[in-house]
């Protein structure tokens, strides 16, 4: 079963980077990439998504707010927050984000986060 993912980042360069990483993975279906958080929230409301990778600092709403809104939805996807500011990790923890990765991130960090997601998804099936 593939992992349905979307990415949200107002930086076109970083959006392209994570999009490229996810497209290279065999069991990941990249469902969308968004430069604005509001468009991403609307997409998640209307489509099945397993995991969201989102920048924290964005002009419309923050990734923290995005994650909070997503987690209020029925059967929400997990959210991994990305930021060049390590201090946001506490905020990510407070809202119980699935993960937090400090920019600049590597392919290995993204793959590790997806592996963790796979393991937790399988564990939930067993329970």
Automatic annotation (TrEMBL):
Task: State the UniProt keywords alphabetically.
Answer: Phosphoprotein
Q: Which SUPFAM superfamilies match?
A: CheY-like
Instruction: Extract the Pfam families matched here.
Output: Response_reg
User: For the Response regulatory domain, which residue ranges apply?
Assistant: 4-118
**Protein's UniProt keywords contain Phosphoprotein:** yes
Please give the InterPro entries that the UniProt record associates with this protein.
Bact_response_regulator, CheY-like_superfamily, Sig_transdc_resp-reg_receiver
Q: What GO terms describe the biological role, i.e. biological process, of this protein?
A: phosphorelay signal transduction system
Question: Which Gene3D superfamilies does UniProt cross-reference here?
Answer: 3.40.50.2300
Q: Which residues carry this modification: 4-aspartylphosphate?
A: 55
For this protein, the record's SMART domains field holds:
REC
Xref: PROSITE patterns? RESPONSE_REGULATORY
- Which domain of life, per UniProt? Bacteria
Function, as annotated, reads: May play the central regulatory role in sporulation. It may be an element of the effector pathway responsible for the activation of sporulation genes in response to nutritional stress. Spo0A may act in concert with spo0H (a sigma factor) to control the expression of some genes that are critical to the sporulation process.
The name this protein carries in UniProt is: Stage 0 sporulation protein A homolog
